[in-house]
Structures are given as C-alpha cells and as structure tokens.
Amino acid sequence: MSKSAGQMSRPKWEPELRIANPPPSLLVKYTRKEKDFFYDYASFIHKILQDPTVGKRLGQILDLENVRMNGLVDIRVMIFPARSFRGQANRVLHGSYNSTALQISLYPVRIPKDWIRWDGFDLFKQSYPNLSERKKKLLNEISESAIATLLHEIFHLKLGNRGMPRYVEESVVKKMETQYMSDWAETISGAVQRAVREY
C-alpha cells in the first residue's frame, strides 16, 4: 500500500454531530434564563468538539485505537442535564451509547439553578478577557467533561462487540479514558478561548 493510500484510510474526526431538540414536556420545566443558558451551553460544546485542535487530538486517539466511525454514529449534544440515577441523587449521567441506534448522547454537567439565574446566565455571552477566573475555570471543566465523556462512549463503541461482562467493559473504558485525557489542558484552553470569542 502506498503512503498516500495509507493516510487516506486512517481514521479522521469527521463526526455527525448535532444539537438534539428537547421534547416540549422537558422545556416547560425550565425558566427562560435556564433555557437560554443550556442552549448556549450546547452550542458552546458543539463548537468545542468541532475545534480543529480538539479534532486533531481526537483523530490521533481514533488512529491509535483503530476506531473507524465512518460517519455512521449519530453524536447528539443534549440541551438539558440527564436525570440522576435512581436512588443516587449525587450521580448524574454525562453520556450514553446506544449500540442499536449507533447513537452517542452527551449531556451537560449539573450546575445549580440558582447560580445560573443570578450569576451564570451570561457565561457564554461574555468575551474571554471579561470572564472571571471562576467562569474561565468552569468553561475549561465543562469542555473537559464533554471530551472525556465522548471518548468514554467511543471506547464503549469499540469494545461493545467483544462480549465482555458490562462491569469489565466499564473498567477497561475508564482506564482508557484516564489514559487519553492526560495533557489536554493547553488544547482545551485554546479551544475555549476560540469558542467564546465567537459570541
């Protein structure tokens, strides 16, 4: 195989990435400020995951793990946080992979509603230099969470047809996520500044 042919066959980060429309029954549970906040949150994460430097890193990981998504996986950026696990109020779902539908769903992190209403409602509407250090840190954290969750679900996609017990697969996936999420700080910081600059 020629070098050019080999390069063409390498996995690339070219996802079918979209912001999912929430059902009307969910919309009525949020105030106008909260809805505006979470729609801006989803738009921000959409930009982060399509940032060229983030895409390059993700493509390198797909290459190393020989994962070929082939544009067939539907990646949904969800607007509102997922429900807490039953009986475990402190545990919130950040992502899921549906192997039947070939669909990955990414949920926002849980943020206190009072903070959104009184301090955070304009988080995604300010220029980066005008953000407080706390808000800059939060933008980095939610970006890291989205990238880590995406990788977590992609690794489930890779391992899902190997017949592992669920708890074994989850353990392997967590180790892979930890391994590949090291040394992202500079990439995430640059992507955040570019994404915020567009507002």
Tally of individual helices: 8
The first-to-last residue Cα distance is 46 Å
Classify the fold: give the CATH topology.
Collagenase (Catalytic Domain)
- Spell out the helices and strands N to C: HEHHHEEEEEHHHH
Structure summary, number of beta strands: 6
Shape assignment: globular
Low-confidence stretches: 1-10
Radius of gyration: 18 Å
* CATH architecture label name: 3-Layer(aba) Sandwich
Tell me the major beta sheet.
Answer: 4 strands, mixed
Query: Strand fraction band?
Result: 5-15%
Short description, anyone?
This protein is an alpha/beta fold. It has helices at about 5-10, 25, 30-50, 50-65, 115-120, 135-160, 165-180, 185-195, and strands at about 15-20, 75, 85, 90, 95-100, 105. It has one domain (about 10-195): Collagenase (Catalytic Domain) (3-Layer(aba) Sandwich).
